[in-house]
Prior knowledge:
It contains four helices and five strands. Strands 1-2-3-4-5 form a five-stranded mixed β-sheet, with helices on one face. The protein is α+β, with helices and mostly antiparallel strands. A hairpin with a 4-residue loop joins β2 (about 70-80) and β3 (about 85-90).
Amino acid sequence: MSKHKWLTIIGVLTMFLLITGCSDSKSTPDNTKVQDPTNQETESKGDNPPTTTKLESDVSLEDQLEAEKGIESVMVQVIEGEQPAVNVDITINNEQALSADQVVEKYSQVIKEKYPNRTIDIIVIQDGKMLKQATFK
């Protein structure tokens, strides 16, 4: 065979190997699955029912906090379940006279009165930036 034919055959085989070697074919079975040890542990116990967590919002508390001067918006999430908690995101505007620390302190008292036996997580935001995050037990 001539040199030109050999180079053509080698070129075609090289292209074939590159295409098949670099393909992302899912036709071969994937036998490399890694099992999560925590998942095995929970499945083996079997006698513990799965815990349910319920997430609700408190519109009345949102409205109460949004009525304050300097508060642009408020989102309140009430979490029911094993670890009951209240997550509050407070967005302040330029009219807010209090610092972020003072906002957290002031409104944490209001939230604690309504939800006394819960973990309270408050985040204060201004202009899309988080200024303060605090958690109260």
